[in-house]
Amino acid sequence: MLGGHALLRRQRIGIAAAQQASPAADAPGILRKTLRGTLAQVTLDDDGGEQWAIVSESDGTIQPFARGVRPPKKDKNGNDITAGAVVGLSCPTDSTGSCTYVSSSDTTLLAGGATPGAATSKVVQRNLIINIDYASCNYSASHNESSLRTLYLGAAGDGTGGHALKFEQCSYGGLTMNATAFTVVTVQPNCTAAILVNCSYSGISNGADAAAKAILGTTAFSSFTHYTYILPPGFESICGWSGLALLPGKQTWLQTSSYGVSRWATAMQEGIHNYGLWHSWLGTAEYNDYSTSMGRGNSCPNAPELSYMKWATPVTGGSALNASLLPVGQAVTFNLPATYLTGTGNFLRVVPDWIPNYLYNVYIAVRANKIGDSALGNGYANRINVHYLNASLDNQRWNGNYTYQYKDRKITVLNTTQVNVTTDLPDYNLVVYGGSWVGTDIMRMYICRYSLSRAECPASAAVLQATASPPPSPSLPPSPSPPSPSPPSPSPPPPKPPSPSPPSPSPPSPSPPPPKPPSPSPPSPPPPPPPSPPKVCAPKKLGSGPHVVGV
User: Fold this and answer.
1) Strand pairing of 62-64 and 285-286?
2) Which residues face 455 on adjacent strands?
3) Section 75-89 average pLDDT
4) Closest alpha carbon to 3 in 196, 254, 230
5) What is the C-alpha to C-alpha distance for residues 373 and 480, in angstroms, rounded to an integer?
6) CA distance 180 to 463
7) Does residue 111 surpass a pLDDT of 50?
8) How far, in Å, are 245, 255, 447 from residue 329 at the CA level?
9) Cα–Cα dist 400/167, whole Å
10) Which helix (DSSP H) or strand (DSSP E) does residue 463 occupy?
């Protein structure tokens, strides 16, 4: 979910501890529901706890769990239960119809989460945009079919502009919208108290779906792959968010506002949530990575996000740089193309197994402010960008284990490096050197591992460039067409992030954060675009022993 930059309030829904206690499940007079469908998380970020839901297998309606109530870790047969799993369950409900408790004994795994196929084969979405008009409650829609088609598909209405072009550019053609199938329908569902007071996302979508089916027919409605609900002006102050999504899923909600449906990066963030990606971080500040639409940026996803979506691949020899590939004191040379140029061979993935019990992997890529990244801020553009993320979850996925593919890997920006600048990453015993440009937006860079001191590595990129034999520059496809101009979008000023606290690597379900380790000097967050370069904001030395910092 993406919050607006000037939201009037957030919904605060407290959940009593008793709601998750099993005795409540058998209390007299409690209505039980039997459900069958796909489990998903809802990308809400307020302090009410996790939000889960089950999407009905039969008709696609959403049955929410009460805030803070989550499915069990195991079903009655001992099978893992995760987001994306298809389950059958029985649960007691509260006055709103939300499940208040789900036990293992009442849950059966029917199918595990699907192995993602995004970008291994091209994905073509068939989008239904449901424009909601609550005129009977004085919240009238301001968009119509024409304005929404233009916003999404561009002035020509064929997908060569608008949001569709951005998705195509950022995915290197891996995710596109079928302009012929693209449909907008305006509906006038009932605006209930749950919607007007509590911004019930399930009430909004379930009512809008029913109204759309009445217009289109159930068969036509079911032919779409993704559904977006456009709320009328004024609802951002009720809901406290600009966008919302199911993770995983095929439904997104967007406000009619400058930071909602009008902003392509918000539409992209919510759309990518459907495929399992969470937000990007700076230190402990969620969203504050300005290098990606999954944070606060008006740009394409960063390298670890592109890798997750299977839109990009590592440079040859750079998929798992470990101790055997990075000998102590020896700089290894790579030519990295800026990510906008190509999805083939555009990043390095470092697996720092020289650190006992290492917790984080590191991704390195070059970014430039062109094409899909044309609005990338100066703090990230024309630089090497370095991110870190949960190593356990990252390694599992790289090894073909998708059990926990939808858990938050806490992708966090670590540092940036300019041409002819050397950056020490002491928490990883690494030195990253920005070399020179060896082609249009192709940077020669070097990486060196040390054992005890940075002095074990070459002094500078200039020294390396005077002695090294560089690899050949990568062969690049023609650059994509430049994007159609889009209206500027306001970016919210970032709050000053506290000291970084990267995620726990353990794959089980989310839990409250454990105590933080001694913190490094806090980073200087990027100001509103263009942001200044982020300072090093890594965890303290990742040595042996217990060092688990949490979500």
Assistant:
1) unpaired
2) none
3) 95
4) 254
5) 12
6) 56
7) yes
8) 46, 53, 10
9) 26
10) helix 461-467
